[in-house]
Here is the input.
Amino acid sequence: MTSIERERIFNPVRIPIYKGLYGLRLLLTTQDKLSKFQTIKDLQSLNKIDFIQKWEYPQVVEVWEASVRATHHFLNEEDIQYFKPLILNTYLDAVNLRAYRNHNKEIIAFLGVDQSNLEMLFVHPDYRGQGIGALLLQYAIKDLKIDKVDVNEQNRQALGFYLKQGFEVKSRSEVDGMGKPYPLLHMALKGFLHQ
Here is the structure.
């Protein structure tokens, strides 16, 4: 049971359910665990992060393409068509994948990790600005132990996002991993030493 006094001490997260008084329950936590719940603002925030099956790769590529078209304005159509089959047939198999799903269990964002490197993090443009990217990134840091990411220098939104999330630029490459003229910024979480 809750009270005004308890809600002054604890931060309640009201979660609608089908039973109970007015269909509401309170989640109470201690101050030291509060950071785990900071991104939960509503039911959408409770969507599950889970594994991606190979049969779902076409849906992942759709999210990738929609995200790239919304954020990677420096890429031309030829580049997008060049990378699309590589994503589908090579890159997705090379990383440890996780999906963020909507209430219909559709993939609306995903990430890919290789060792301690975040290799990809894409959010469908219809769901941007809702904290999903930050939630996935925090999951990758805490659960998948990533501490590095490469960002296209021309993608100022992504650069700002990672800087805000505690990363800093460590070095720069003139070309991307495929030798294309898209400079990369090599970033690491602040406080971590990298070669």
